[in-house]
């Protein structure tokens, strides 16, 4: 159980870092790298941005639950 939670936390944290880097910031971030900085139909609050937001929230919840579960498992000594 400990190994599964550890692997889940590591994988979800790596995916979460990637998803956060893909978000468009004030300066454009890495998301403008793929678009070349050109304004297109994918900018703003499009379906792509909304799905990226949803994926980021889902992986953040998976990461948080796995961290809390690891703490509980370690405390109980299971």
TrEMBL record:
Domain of life: Bacteria
GO BP term (any one): protein secretion
Intracellular or extracellular location(s): Cell membrane
Gene Ontology annotations for the cellular component aspect, listed alphabetically: plasma membrane
Transmembrane segments annotated in the record for this chain: 56-76
GO molecular function: protein-transporting ATPase activity
InterPro entries reported for this sequence: SecG
Topological type in the membrane: Multi-pass membrane protein
Keyword annotations: Cell membrane, Membrane, Protein transport, Translocation, Transmembrane, Transmembrane helix, Transport
One Pfam family this sequence matches: SecG
PANTHER family, alphabetized: PROTEIN-EXPORT MEMBRANE PROTEIN SECG
Membership in a protein family: Belongs to the SecG family.
Biological role stated in the UniProt entry: Involved in protein export. Participates in an early event of protein translocation.
Protein name: Protein-export membrane protein SecG
Organism of provenance: Lawsonella clevelandensis
Origin organism lineage: Bacteria, Bacillati, Actinomycetota, Actinomycetes, Mycobacteriales
């Amino acid at each position: 159980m400990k190994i599964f939670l550890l692997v889940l936390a590591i994988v979800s944290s790596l995916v979460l870092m990637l998803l956060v880097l893909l978000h468009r910031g004030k300066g454009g971030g890495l998301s403008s790298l793929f678009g070349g900085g050109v304004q297109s139909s994918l900018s703003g609050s499009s379906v792509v941005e909304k799905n990226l937001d949803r994926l980021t929230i889902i992986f953040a919840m998976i990461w948080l639950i796995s961290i809390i579960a690891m703490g509980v498992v370690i405390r109980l000594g299971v």
